[in-house]
Amino acid sequence: MSPSAFRAFTFDCYGTLIDWEQGMLRALRALPGIAADDDALLAAFARHEHAIQEENPAMLYPQVLDHACKAIAADFGHAATDAEAAAFGASIADWPPFPDSVDALAYLRQHGLLMVLSNVDRASFAHSASRLGDPFQAVVTAEDVGSYKPAPAHFERAKALLADEGIAPGEVLHVAQSLFHDVVPGRAAGFSTCWIDRRAGRPGGATPPVDVEPDMTFHDLASLAAWHRTGTG
Known about the structure:
Layout: E1 8-11, H1 20-29, H2 38-55, H3 61-75, H4 82-90, H5 101-109, E2 113-118, H6 122-131, E3 138-141, H7 142-145, H8 153-164, E4 172-176, H9 179-188, E5 192-196, E6 216-218, H10 221-232
């Protein structure tokens, strides 16, 4: 697969560009009386987040996090207050980028259109975009399409926006950490898919498991940029 084949790069944000596991664990650890280990907390988050999104596809993401916080806390014997849940919902503004995200995005922007397909709302994403250096020419959020990935609406909107730029699905590389939320619907949309395996083969994490084969796999975004640089240099 040649790097020069791609005229656009679409990205998941949280887990791929922003270290949401570190961010959410820090916020959950602020709750009193939660003694579970990281893997148990992330598994609970993956379970509750997806269920809440399926039941409430038009709910804005801070409210999804609010509901998830209360459900996770209850799993481990704590009744989260409204204030605690709201603080977890607002914590997305503090979730940090991965160390390689800014430089890799700046490089890839020189070689194609960059678009984000994210399961958040516009206001929440604005904080993260600023932390990433605002490299995106287009943004599609759950707020925009009224549903959450892996539902196909993000990808349908992306294809329409890319078509306006004369870019076909076969010229798009979708880059994401979540096989469940992104690689499955990305393949269905006709995009090539790149799995950023940030957990380096460790099972678990904040996304549900699924059996799917991406077109390519790297452990970080810097490695994707290096592959592109080698193939086009």
